[in-house]
């Protein structure tokens, strides 16, 4: 079963904020390359955030599952089902991303995504 | 203690938990399927082929009520059953509780006996309801079940926190306000016996009601007041409503706000991600104050207090007869609940126990005092009567991979479950048949481990001798490891004018790979001048000389390509991505100019510019001369002789390179580059031992200084940093990596620097030095004010003020004084 590790909440809060900015920046048409800063933040989270990250190849990865299929075997997301049907669900809103803690080739989910799902038929 | 029950279970209406007493302590076990949580929502969902319990089942509760059941505890001991659509069958509350208890058993680490448990029940449960709970325990595989009332369990959790003092005789209240239910109990200890005297409750009152109130009474009205909506509340709450998805987002935000309001006086809730009826995007913040929230939940809290007062008057008790109110349940974290209860009842509240896990913990304390019955206890692991043969792809680039298993033996009444080790996938319990087929979802670019467990009728794990299922999604057949380090040439701050290598991708990294580094420019680039930034990516050992490695890609950014002046100290972001076929793409972004330069280098082409080659040869020649001079000084004749031979070849190379014209079209540049590389390797080989010895010496000197100053002025944190930095000394000390030795020396230098910087001697020395330099400072008036301030600080022994003044004086030094030697590369 999954190994449970404790991650300082401040890391998760920061990553959630970066994710929020990333979502907002994606909808902007602006000339100041905000997306570049967001990408840079993402890379820092993956490569540099944790002490000795470069040596131990450990860090965080976050993933936006928007548009992916959903069913209740997916324990990487906490879902609220919108609409009436519970069949053929797809993720339509992502409030928080999936955050994984990576250590070498192994990674563990330290934050489940918080999502809203809807039946494909109702889209 | 092995002959005691030791396991306590809180089988709750909304949430359940399991705790274990071991080594004198109670541990509430984590939910392995829900990282970070040690509770299990008491909800069961039925699909055609699987039974799901807990959080995943709860997700479906509202929308698929005919196949998902929650709050069944309320019906324990009744003849009522639930019709389950998906399996066209009835399920009794006992059966449903059994699934929850089975799931809780799976929280236990492997190898621990789970054949007996103390299970808690509400104070209101009668004999039939109690027996029904016992039956559920028995069906879940507990051969022995002892029941304990929830308020007593919570009281035991409190009593065990104060083992040193016996709980005084008297009465107290257990106020249990959870996620969805409220219970109040009056507990008494008399003649050493703890007893529930009276109780009351509301099965439809809890924290989720408060979340709903925030949405209904604060958020929706605020949105409706600012934007155009037709009956937003109905549109949100109706499953077919236009804004139904937003309702769940608001509920999530309301819950977060509620939690934050326990520690803050107000919270900003961001409302966005929707448009109103006029297509205007909704994007604003609603302030939810603690006062507004308190006002909102006052009727509910007052209702609970009304029930407490009923109990007191029924039992002819007054506030002074009650020792305290023990607060249990997650909603008692809310400060207003605590404050209001204390204020209206005039009874002191007691918040010492963890309100969420207290009942399970108290049950485990009780279990530690109850002996296990012997003779009729099953072994927790069924002896193996099944064998398994599995088939699946060990590597895959697909999103999911088919897993097949063939089971030999009697599979009747057995179930199986497959979970992914990262916590992201769980099939739920499925009936075991002779053949299993499952599509296992894979996380990209990692090793995916899955665990298959088989359970018998009593939920005991059946030993299958099956190995962990491992599917590598990190690289397919086309993935290949890097044969050499890939490095970036950077300026060496310690040796002005020389360069060193910075490791980008380590040897044996799996392709494709990508990395970004940000460097600070060490020179200014004037627009239109002849200044250049050189980005040189090399292949070869990262501890070698830059000139000794093969150039993979070389990108020059000249001042003519830049739209504006770039100041020294601004950042350059470099991104390197290398494809599976080893194409290297270098992207350089100059932050100050907001300009990007990008070039892809393929291994088929070599990128050698004549100007870069000339510069490299020149640098290498100077390096060789310095080495010869050093070895002569140190009378290291053997190395000097070796270097003299190399020098002759270097002279020839220099001449040939000088003769090369910039637009030479022959292969000459490549031949010369190879020659240069070989000469650099020869210099490196001849001098490496000498360099390593010097670096080791430097390291030990620095370590000695560091230890000395740590003894006198070091903090605990700095001692820990020192210990961490030196604990791996053996490995880097005898490696051939000069980079590693330099890095470790730098770590020690930084520890030492941070201590020295705050010592009075250092601060005073720096101040004196700055006073000497003050005539050249940019603002004389300010400098003089700072200098007199510094003298006062020294007299007053105000060292932190002196540190600030030193910093301000440093800032007044003209740039030329602070200017470092300009590097070859530019960063």
UniProtKB/TrEMBL annotation, chain A:
Name of protein: Uncharacterized protein
Organism: Chitinophaga tropicalis
From TrEMBL, chain B:
Pfam families with a match to the protein in the record: HSP70
Record Gene3D superfamilies: 3.30.420.40, Actin, Chain A, domain 4, Substrate Binding Domain Of DNAk, Chain A, domain 1
GO MF terms, alphabetically ordered: ATP binding; ATP-dependent protein folding chaperone
UniProt superkingdom: Bacteria
Keyword Nucleotide-binding tagged: yes
Alphabetical UniProt keywords: ATP-binding, Chaperone, Coiled coil, Nucleotide-binding
Coiled-coil residue spans: 629-689
PROSITE patterns: HSP70_1 (PS00297)
Similarity remark: Belongs to the heat shock protein 70 family.
UniProt-recorded name of the protein: Hsp70 family protein
Organism: Chitinophaga tropicalis
Species lineage: Bacteria, Pseudomonadati, Bacteroidota, Chitinophagia, Chitinophagales
């Amino acid at each position: 079963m999954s190994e449970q590790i404790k991650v300082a909440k401040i890391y998760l809060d920061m990553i959630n904020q970066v994710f929020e900015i990333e979502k907002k920046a994606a909808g902007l048409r602006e000339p100041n390359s905000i997306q570049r800063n967001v990408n840079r933040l993402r890379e820092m989270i993956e490569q540099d955030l944790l002490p000795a990250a470069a040596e131990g190849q450990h860090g965080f990865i976050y993933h936006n599952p928007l548009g992916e299929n959903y069913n209740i075997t997916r324990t990487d997301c906490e879902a609220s089902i919108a609409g009436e049907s519970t069949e053929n669900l797809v993720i339509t809103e992502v409030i928080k991303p999936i955050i994984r803690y990576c250590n070498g080739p192994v990674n563990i989910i330290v934050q489940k995504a918080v999502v809203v799902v809807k039946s494909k038929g109702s889209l | 203690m092995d002959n005691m029950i030791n396991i306590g279970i809180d089988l709750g209406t909304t949430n359940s938990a399991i705790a274990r007493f071991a080594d004198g302590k109670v541990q509430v076990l984590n939910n392995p399927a829900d990282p970070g949580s040690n509770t299990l929502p008491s909800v069961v969902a039925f699909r055609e082929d699987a039974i799901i319990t807990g959080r995943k089942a709860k997700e479906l509760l509202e929308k698929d009520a005919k196949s998902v059941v929650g709050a069944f505890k309320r019906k324990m001991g009744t003849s009522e059953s639930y019709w389950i659509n998906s399996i066209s069958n009835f399920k009794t509350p006992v059966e449903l509780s059994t699934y929850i208890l089975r799931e809780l058993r799976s929280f236990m680490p492997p190898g621990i006996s789970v054949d007996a448990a103390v299970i808690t029940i509400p104070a209101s449960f009668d004999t039939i309801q109690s027996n029904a709970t016992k039956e559920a325990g028995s069906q879940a595989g507990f051969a022995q079940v002892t029941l304990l009332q929830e308020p007593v369990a919570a009281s035991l959790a409190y009593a065990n926190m104060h083992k040193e003092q016996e709980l005084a005789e008297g009465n107290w209240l257990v106020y249990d306000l959870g996620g969805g239910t409220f219970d109040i109990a009056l507990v008494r200890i008399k003649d050493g016996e703890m007893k529930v005297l009276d109780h009351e409750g509301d099965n439809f009152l809890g924290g989720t009601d408060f979340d709903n109130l925030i949405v209904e009474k604060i958020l929706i009205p605020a949105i409706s007041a600012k934007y155009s909506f037709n009956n937003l509340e109905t549109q949100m709450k109706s499953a077919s409503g236009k804004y139904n998805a937003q309702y769940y987002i608001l509920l999530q935000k309301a819950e977060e706000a509620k939690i934050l309001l326990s520690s803050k006086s107000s919270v900003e809730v961001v409302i966005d991600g929707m448009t109103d009826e006029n297509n205007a995007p909704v994007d604003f913040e609603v302030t939810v104050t603690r006062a507004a929230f308190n006002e909102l939940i006052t009727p509910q809290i007052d209702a609970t207090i009304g029930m407490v007062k009923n109990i007191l008057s029924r039992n002819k008790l007054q506030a002074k007869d009650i020792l305290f109110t023990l607060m249990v349940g997650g909603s008692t974290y809310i400060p207003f609940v605590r404050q209001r209860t204390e204020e209206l009842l005039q009874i002191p509240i007691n918040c010492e126990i963890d309100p969420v896990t207290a009942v399970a913990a108290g049950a485990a304390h009780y279990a530690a005092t109850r002996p296990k019955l012997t003779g009729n206890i099953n072994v927790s692991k069924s002896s193996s009567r099944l064998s398994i043969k599995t088939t699946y792809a060990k590597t895959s680039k697909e999103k999911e991979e088919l897993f097949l298993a063939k089971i030999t033996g009697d599979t009747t009444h057995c179930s199986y479950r497959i979970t992914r080790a990262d916590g992201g996938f769980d099939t739920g319990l499925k009936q075991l048949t002779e053949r299993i087929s499952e599509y296992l979802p894979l996380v990209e670019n990692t090793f995916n481990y899955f665990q298959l467990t088989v359970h018998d009728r009593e939920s005991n794990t059946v030993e299958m001798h099956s190995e962990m299922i491992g599917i590598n999604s990190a690289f397919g057949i086309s993935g290949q490891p890097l044969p050499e380090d890939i490095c970036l040439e950077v300026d060496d701050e310690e040796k002005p004018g020389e360069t060193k290598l910075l490791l980008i991708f380590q040897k044996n990294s799996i392709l494709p790979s990508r990395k970004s580094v940000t460097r600070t420019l060490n020179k200014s680039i004037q627009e239109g001048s002849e200044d250049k930034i050189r980005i040189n990516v090399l292949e070869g050992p990262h501890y070698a000389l830059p000139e000794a490695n093969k150039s993979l890609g070389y990108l020059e950014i000249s001042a003519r390509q830049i739209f504006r002046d770039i100041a020294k100290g601004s950042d350059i972001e470099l991104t390197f991505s290398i494809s599976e076929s080893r194409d290297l793409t270098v992207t350089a972004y100059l932050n100050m100019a907001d300009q990007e330069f990008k070039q892809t280098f393929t291994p088929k082409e070599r990128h050698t510019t004549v100007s870069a080659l000339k510069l490299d040869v020149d640098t290498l020649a100077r390096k060789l001369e310095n080495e010869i001079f050093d070895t002569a000084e140190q009378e290291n004749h053997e190395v000097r002789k070796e270097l003299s031979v190399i020098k002759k070849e270097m002279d020839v190379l220099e001449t040939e390179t000088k003769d090369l014209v910039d637009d030479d079209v022959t292969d000459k540049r490549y031949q010369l580059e190879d020659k240069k590389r070989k000469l650099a390797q020869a210099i490196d080989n001849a001098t490496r031992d000498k360099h390593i010895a010097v670096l080791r010496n430097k390291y030990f000197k620095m370590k000695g200084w560091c230890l000395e100053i740590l003894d006198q002025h070091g903090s605990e944190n700095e001692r820990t940093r020192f210990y961490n930095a030196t604990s791996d000394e053996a490995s880097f000390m005898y490696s051939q990596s000069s980079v590693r030795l330099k890095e470790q020396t730098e770590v020690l230098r930084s520890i030492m620097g941070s201590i020295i910087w705050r010592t009075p001697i250092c601060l005073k020395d720096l101040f004196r030095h700055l006073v000497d330099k003050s005539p050249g400072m940019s603002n004389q008036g300010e400098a003089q004010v700072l200098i007199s301030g510094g003298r006062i600080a020294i007299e007053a022994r105000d060292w932190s003020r002196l540190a600030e003044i030193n910093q301000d004086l440093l800032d007044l030094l003209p740039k030329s004084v602070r200017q470092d030697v300009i590097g070859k590369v530019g960063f």
